[in-house]
């Protein structure tokens, strides 16, 4: 690959807030490691323009209003082309209205319940906000065209007067006081469309206050209508510089304490900076955090703090999580064997030689069969080697070995690409742009030991990232020039998405905390969603299957809820998948002779789609006989696509069956158990469903897919 070292390319950064509005006049600094590249203020369109050479890492920092400190909001690996990069600053995520100094008001959160005939644009207009803002505040709304009756929607009107920094689970809003009376009027709609009001009584020199705060779970739940007869009187403190005051927030469930410190931003406007106490788990809300528990997240942060310091602990912990995701095949398990049978095991795929070096023990090699799924029909079982001492550990215990592995890097400044290469090919970590892998030793520059050069060639087939570039939309695509060499910058582009994708897997719960919201599904809430789904005609009076699809697409994981329904009642709930496994997603042509992509069930109803029969002539199952509405995923990544135009498909073998040929078996991952089928993880649980249906004399099944909050 020929890289023009002296050629300059146009790079434009566009800084937006979470409502997708450009942030003008924001102070920024752009650095290449320690070197300052450019600093100044964003223009009226929120843009920063500069010229720079390819093959470098640029990091973007912006100034925080409340403490004037610089915060990193992103980094890019500069390609050899002109690009525009959109970056999201979290500035607007916590924007609220703060009362003018000396006035009083009521802290509150506004939730709107969708009525028949509502549209998202109509709701936005009525509440003086935008559709983009509502989508940002309600991540469970996947499309602005799909909302359903009685759905609870968070309303986030705000202005630039102040920032109240909480977290996404507890939202406090300070609405403006009316100039004439000082009273605060709540316009939150009740079920019947009426409004309730709350009056704030001025108090002089007030330093503490009690406020009604509703606990906000990760996904919208229908909120109870406010009772007009139970209005709350709110007292608020007067803002004073550097004066600490505490607010005891009471909910209908468990009290929370919020410590608030009044500060001022650069415009001398008051800023309230608050943080939750009583739940340490929330402090460790790392990328990919939904894949692990609170104990694991806390330990990752503790390791990062010890090795790289308190200030960098979250950044480095997130880097660790991104490496775990890739190396463990997104399982985050200690027993995950290397799919190429190298003997590597677990979160960072520790090799036998490495295990020996960091522990002084001799690794015990064991074999595991079909860990990543059953082979194709007619193919032999797949046996993979792994280290027994690591495979028996819990993920949290495995982290002790992670710490030992990274201890030589203690205190070092590492960018993600170098961090990643420490695991992938350590000799390349920390070096400037160079050839990491190549398909021929002649393409590896001289100057290294011959054995290292040969290893670079040997590793090329399994690490072929040749040709990765950033396209016009800012996505990493393998559409560049392929010359049989993998440059460090190409690897940086190819793996950068593990940081970005991990944002979608942040833990959306407070496990281990007394304020963890209960997530108990009722038949009524499921039926409401089902009735609001596409192609709804009627609720079957007999047995039918309801698939509640996880809002987080965890590759290869049984993370959907499968319900056996009878009429409008839940009979049984089990874990399963409504998505294909990774093998089908990455190589759909191997399972689809028409080469039209991997099949994904569309949301909504598929009436009388299955009939009692045999899956692959082996398993008692319900096989496809009716019309299925299917979206074809063609991008060959590990994330199933739920959006797109669905088409009717008949006779495609999209069946309903268990993830085992044995009556009491199960599978750890989806693998090839689903190339488009709906699959229950445990065969025992599947057959409890199957037997109920068959024993009733029913042999035709209807299926419906809804979006869940799991």
Describe the structure.
The chain is α+β, with helices and mostly antiparallel strands and 710 residues long. It has 14 helices and 32 strands. The strands form 9 sheets. It has an 8-stranded mixed beta sheet. Strand 26 (604-615) and strand 27 (619-624) form a beta hairpin. Helix 3 (294-308) crosses helix 4 (313-327) and helix 3 runs parallel beside helix 7 (395-406). The radius of gyration is 28 Å and the shape is globular. The chain starts with 7 loop residues before the first strand and ends with a strand.
The percent of residues in helical segments reads 10-25%
How does the major sheet shape up? 8 strands, mixed
The low-confidence runs, each spanning 5 or more residues with pLDDT under 50, are 1-5, 91-109, 157-280, 508-520
Mean pLDDT: 74
Beta-strand percentage range: 25-35%
Strand order of the largest sheet: 27-26-32-22-23-24-31-30
Strand runs, count? 32
Distance between the termini: 45 Å
- Overall, the morphology is globular
Number of helices: 14
């Amino acid at each position: 690959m020929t890289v023009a070292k002296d050629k300059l390319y146009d790079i434009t950064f566009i800084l937006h807030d979470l409502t997708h509005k450009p942030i003008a006049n924001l102070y920024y600094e752009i650095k290449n490691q320690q070197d300052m590249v450019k600093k100044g203020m964003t223009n009226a369109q929120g843009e920063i323009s500069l010229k720079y050479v390819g093959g470098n890492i640029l990091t973007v920092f912006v100034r925080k209003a409340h403490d004037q400190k610089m915060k990193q909001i992103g980094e890019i690996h500069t390609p050899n082309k002109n690009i525009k990069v959109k970056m999201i600053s979290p500035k607007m995520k916590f924007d609220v209205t703060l009362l003018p100094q000396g006035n009083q008001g009521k802290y509150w959160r506004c939730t709107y319940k969708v009525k028949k005939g509502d549209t998202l644009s109509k709701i936005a207009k009525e509440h003086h906000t935008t559709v983009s803002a509502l989508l940002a505040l309600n991540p469970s709304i996947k499309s602005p065209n799909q909302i359903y009756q009685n759905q609870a929607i968070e309303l986030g009107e705000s202005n630039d007067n102040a920032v109240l920094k909480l977290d996404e689970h507890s939202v406090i809003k300070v609405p403006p006081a009316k100039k004439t009376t000082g009273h605060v009027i709540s316009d939150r709609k009740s079920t019947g469309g009426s409004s309730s009001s709350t009056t704030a009584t001025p108090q002089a020199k007030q330093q503490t206050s009690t406020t009604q705060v509703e606990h906000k779970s990760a996904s919208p739940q229908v909120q109870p209508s406010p009772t007009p007869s139970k209005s709350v009187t709110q007292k608020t403190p007067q803002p004073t510089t550097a004066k600490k005051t505490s607010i005891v927030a009471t909910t209908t469930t468990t009290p929370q304490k919020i410590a608030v410190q009044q500060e001022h931003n650069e415009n001398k406007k008051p800023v309230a900076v608050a943080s939750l106490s009583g739940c340490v788990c929330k402090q460790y809300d790392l990328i990919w955090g939904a894949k692990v528990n609170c104990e694991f997240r806390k330990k990752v942060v503790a390791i990062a703090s010890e090795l790289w310091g308190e200030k960098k602990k979250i950044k480095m912990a997130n880097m660790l999580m991104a490496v775990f995701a890739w190396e463990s095949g997104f399982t985050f398990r200690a027993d995950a064997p290397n799919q190429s049978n190298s003997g590597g095991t677990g979160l960072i795929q520790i090799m036998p030689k490495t295990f020996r070096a960091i522990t002084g023990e001799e690794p015990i090699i064991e074999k595991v069969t079909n860990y990543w799924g059953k082979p194709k029909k007619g193919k032999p079982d797949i046996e993979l080697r792994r280290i027994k001492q690591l495979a028996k550990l819990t993920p949290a215990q495995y982290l002790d070995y992670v710490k030992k592995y990274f201890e030589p890097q203690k205190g070092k400044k590492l960018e993600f690409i170098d961090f990643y290469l420490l695991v992938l090919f350590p000799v390349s970590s920390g070096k400037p742009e160079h050839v990491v892998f190549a398909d021929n030793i002649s393409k590896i520059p001289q100057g290294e030991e011959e054995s290292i050069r040969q290893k670079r060639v040997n590793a090329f087939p399994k690490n072929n990232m040749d040709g990765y570039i950033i396209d016009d939309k800012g996505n990493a695509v393998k559409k560049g020039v392929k010359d049989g060499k993998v440059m460090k910058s190409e690897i940086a582009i190819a793996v950068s998405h593990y940081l970005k994708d991990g944002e979608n897997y942040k833990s959306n719960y407070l496990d281990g905390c007394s304020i963890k919201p209960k997530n108990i599904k009722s038949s009524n809430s499921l039926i409401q969603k089902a009735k609001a789904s596409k192609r709804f005609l009627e609720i079957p009076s007999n047995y039918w299957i309801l698939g509640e699809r996880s809002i987080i697409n965890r590759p290869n994981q049984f993370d959907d809820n499968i319900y056996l329904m009878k009429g409008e009642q839940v009979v049984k709930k089990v874990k399963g998948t409504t998505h294909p496994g990774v093998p089908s997603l990455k190589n759909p042509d191997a399972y689809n002779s028409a080469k039209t992509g991997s099949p994904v069930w569309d949301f909504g109803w598929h009436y009388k789609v299955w009939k009692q029969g045999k899956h692959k002539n082996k398993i008692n199952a319900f096989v496809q006989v009716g019309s299925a509405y299917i979206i074809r995923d063609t991008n060959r990544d590990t994330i199933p696509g739920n959006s797109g135009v669905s088409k009717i498909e008949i006779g495609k073998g999209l069946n309903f069956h268990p993830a085992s040929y044995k009556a009491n078996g199960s599978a750890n991952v989806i693998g090839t158990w689903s190339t488009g089928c709906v699959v229950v993880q445990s065969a025992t649980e599947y057959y409890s469903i199957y037997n109920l249906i068959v024993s009733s004399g029913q042999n035709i099944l209807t299926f419906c897919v809804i979006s869940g909050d799991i």
